[in-house]
Amino acid sequence: METWRRLLADAVTTADEITERFGIDAGQLAPVIRRYPMRITPGYLRLVEAPGDPIWRQCIPDPAELCDDQQSDPLHEERLSPVPGLIHRYPDRVVWVVSGECAVYCRFCMRKRQVGCMTSRHCEDPFGEPLRYIAETPAIRDVILSGGDPLLLDDERLEEILARLAAIPHVEMVRIGTRTPVTLPERITARLCRMLKRYHPLYVNTHFNHPREITAEAAKACARLADAGIPLGNQSVLLADVNDDPAVMTRLMQLLLSIRVRPYYIHQMDLVRGTGHFRTPVATGLEILTALRGNTSGMATPHYVIDAPGGKGKIPLLPDCISRRGDLWLLRTYTGETIEYRDVGQPATVLPG
């Protein structure tokens, strides 16, 4: 068995295992785990220094997950899905959910309703419908493989996807979204990188949220990908009591550049059911962006974005490019609409562009 498969098999999945390690009441965790599964790889769990610290908050279930009345799919991914597993929000690109599992089930996951809970669809060609849709839609030039985590597929299945996409003339690029360099860096093997290298142009966006996640093992994984000629980006999520501090986020962005990963996005926490305890005010993100701009390299300054509820896409925020009306933020969407956005809840109104 490959090392990464063995480590995945050794992952912590039950409340009793957390109780044995940290001495907390398993009764607090068990009901959450029944609703939203837990999986934590041995390496990621070793990064926890104490209950409640920034790593703990990202991977250990919290009873607050069951006390949130937001929507389970506020970005309307299911409504924007023309065939199972494919999300077509923007004209020239699609997100293809190729896996329903992750090495670590992050407690703030935007697809909390699905990841770790999805059942396999048994059919002769599980990739057939998405590939047919992509092939029959010439406007699609960019395919983003997502999940779950695409790199939890074995090399052969992942290569099948990449090869079949490469055979579609109008697909110009493929992106892979993965957190394995953070949560299971052993997955980034030399064999995997040799295979990926055959399918350029290929981009990888990973997901570091805190400086302590940038370990020697994570740096080695990113180096292997970069040495294979794959440009690396990072998408962080702004999380309460994890990275909602200008000094923490600045250091994270600087360390990312040191391991050849370009900061790409800081996401405002999505309004997803079960994640409300992670949300920060929009003003917090603007404060962090202000601290980054001019105080560290421009390369270390990502876009701060809100993925607008209702499937209206990502909206970049700048301290001097959005306005406020009372308790509402006025945001301009990529389609030219203006949205009134509350920090908690759905946008109140869509105004004429």
From TrEMBL:
Keyword annotations: 4Fe-4S, Elongation factor, Iron, Iron-sulfur, Isomerase, Metal-binding, Protein biosynthesis, Pyridoxal phosphate, S-adenosyl-L-methionine
Annotated positions of the N6-(pyridoxal phosphate)lysine modification: K314
Sites where the protein binds [4Fe-4S] cluster: C102, C106, C109
Residue stretches making up the Radical SAM core domain: 88-307
Keyword Lyase: no
One Pfam family in the UniProt entry: LAM_C
Molecular function GO labels: 4 iron, 4 sulfur cluster binding; intramolecular aminotransferase activity; metal ion binding; translation elongation factor activity
Domain of life: Bacteria
Matching PROSITE patterns: RADICAL_SAM
InterPro entries in the cross-refs: Aldolase_TIM, LAM_C_dom, Lys_aminomutase/Glu_NH3_mut, rSAM, rSAM_sf
Essential cofactor(s): pyridoxal 5'-phosphate; [4Fe-4S] cluster
UniProt family annotation: Belongs to the radical SAM superfamily. KamA family.
Name of the protein in question: Translation elongation factor P-lysyl-lysine 2,3-aminomutase
Organism: Geobacter sulfurreducens (strain ATCC 51573 / DSM 12127 / PCA)
